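For concreteness, we quote verbatim a single protein encoded this way:
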Amino acid sequence: MNNVRDVGIVGLGKMGILHGGIVNALPNCRVKAVCEKEKFVVKMAQRAMPKDVSYYDDCASMMENENLEAVFITTPINQHVPVIGEVVKAKPDVSLFVEKPLAESANSARLACEATAKLRGVHMVGFQKRYSPIYQHAKRIIENESIGDLMFFRAHSYSSDVVREGKSWRSKKGIGGVLLDLAPHLLDLLLWFFGDIESISAVRRSLYSKEVEDYAYASFKFKSTLTGHIDTCWSVRGFRLPEIMIEIYGRNGNILLSDDMIKVELAESNGSRGTQVLHKQSFDNSVPFLLDEPEYTKEDVSFLDGISRGSTPVPDFVEAAKVNVLIERIIEAASEES
C-alpha cells in the first residue's frame, strides 16, 4: 500500500467510529492506529475494523510507534487540549482534526491555538454545518445583500437529550452543558454569517442537571450593529433529532433556514418579488462515500485535501476558538443577570 496516508484516531466513541469509517472508505487513506482506553470498546472495534489497525491505551505510545500523517481527536471535550499537546510534542509535522468544540473553555482553546505555533501540519475543528449546501447558500445570500441590509435575526437549537434527572456525561461540568454540547454549531454559524459580536445579555437555567445548564438565552449585538437572539435547550420534548432554525430579516426580504430547508422571501423593492423554498434534496450533495450526513464526509475530505495542498481548511483552531470565547461571554453575561 504505497502512498497511503496513515491516520490515527484518539477516542473511539460515536464520532471516532464515524470518522474512521469515512477515512477507510476514501482512496489512499486508512486508519492505521487507534488510541482508546476502554477495553470493551477496543474488542468491539477489532471485530469491525481492518485487521492491520494497531491499538493503544495512551496517546504518547501511539505517536512514538506509528508514523502517522494525521490524527483525529474525538475524545470527551475536556481531553481535547491535553491530547493536542501530546500529539504536537511527539510529532510537530502531523495534521490535527478535532471534533467540536475545540475545548471546554476559552483559556483551553487559547492553549490549543498556541500549540499550532509548533505544528507544521494543518489543523481543523469539526463544525460540519459549514459544509451543508443549505447554510452555504444562506451565506452567499447574506454576502450578496440579496435581502438588503440586515435588520435582526432570531434562532434556536433544540433537542430532547435531557428530559429527566440522571447521571449522564451530559451533566458533567467541563464535558456537558447545553452551551458546550448542543449550542456550538449554531454559535459557529452565527459568527460565520455575521462576524464578531460587540455586546451580549444572557440567561442560563438548570432544569434537570445540577452542574451544568440545560437552557440558555442570549441576545447579541454584532459589530455590524445587527441584533438578534438565540434560545438553546436540550430539554425540549418532541425533538427526536437536534434542530437548528434561523430566521434572518432584511430590508428587502427574509431567510428562514434549518438543516433541511431554506426559504427566501424577497420584497417587491428588490425587483424580483417572490418566495423560493429549497430542500436539501434540491442541492447537489454528492460525496465519494456516504456515512451519516454528507457534511461529515465533505469536512473530512477538506481536511485531508488541505494536508496535500499545505493549506489549512476551515474552520481552523483560531477561528473555532471564537466559539469557546463566545460561550464564555454568554456565561459571564448570564452571571451578571443573576
Observations:
- The mean pLDDT is 94.
- The domain at 5-127+293-312 is CATH 3.40.50.720 (Rossmann fold).
- The longest strand covers residues 150-158.
